[in-house]
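testing teh design pipeline on a random one, pls ignore if ur not involved
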């Protein structure tokens, strides 16, 4: 039965097409080609206008219109242990778009990261987690995506995250969240004594050293407050564009 046994993924695709992808009601996903690889599977519909790449944890669909590829994350929650594996699916989707001669690929960043039991625990935006550890959104760490609109606030966030120190986070004065802020600092799961917390960008250095797999709950509980402490504005559900040719 292979990697995908025990689940009717074609029915899953029909469900998402009908209930969530309201801009694609006219497209049928009757499978014409299905190809299995060791770690993922690809499918193409009968008229070739839809391409799906998926693994055990995640599914992406690409809808082709004229010279533009629209990358859609059918799975919006991925386990923290599968973040790197999911990047492979994006690369495959982009390569398919390039082979078809598309000029650009557009995606809305809607992916969240969750625990292994993805539907029982709270989740948080993968793009915001990535921005706080490396100063880039998740998609930007795969290909040179650029933000569609609102570029001024993104430039401000990128400049700020390179300057903010962990000492700035410690000294942040909250009027209404003081207790939560102090609790966040007390529950920091690593020793920062060997990190220069006064160095520009050291907030990223500290957070990079916290395993998202082992300490998922720390980020689930405190990521919004960490962003607020650093002065970083919302980084989720943005639209990104990748120029292909």
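output:
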């Amino acid at each position: 039965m292979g990697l995908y046994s025990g689940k009717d993924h074609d029915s899953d695709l029909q469900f998402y097409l009908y209930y969530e992808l309201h801009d694609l009601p006219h497209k049928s996903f009757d499978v014409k080609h299905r190809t299995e690889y060791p770690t993922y599977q690809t499918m193409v519909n009968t008229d070739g206008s839809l391409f799906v790449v998926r693994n055990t944890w995640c599914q992406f669909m690409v809808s082709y219109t004229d010279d533009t590829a629209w990358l859609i994350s059918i799975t919006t929650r991925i386990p923290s242990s599968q973040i790197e594996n999911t990047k492979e699916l994006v690369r495959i989707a982009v390569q398919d778009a390039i082979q078809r001669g598309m000029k650009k690929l557009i995606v809305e960043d809607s992916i969240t990261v969750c625990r292994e039991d993805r539907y029982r625990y709270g989740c948080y935006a993968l793009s915001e987690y990535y921005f706080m550890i490396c100063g880039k959104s998740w998609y930007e760490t795969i290909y040179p995506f650029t933000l569609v609109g609102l570029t001024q606030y993104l430039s401000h966030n990128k400049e700020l995250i390179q300057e903010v120190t962990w000492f700035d986070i410690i000294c942040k004065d909250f009027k209404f969240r003081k207790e939560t802020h102090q609790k966040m600092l007390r529950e920091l799961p690593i020793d920062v004594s060997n990190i220069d917390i006064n160095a520009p960008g050291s907030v990223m250095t500290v957070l990079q050293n916290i395993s998202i797999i082992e300490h998922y709950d720390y980020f689930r509980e405190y990521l919004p407050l960490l962003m607020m402490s650093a002065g970083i504005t919302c980084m989720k559900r943005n639209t990104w564009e990748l120029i292909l040719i």
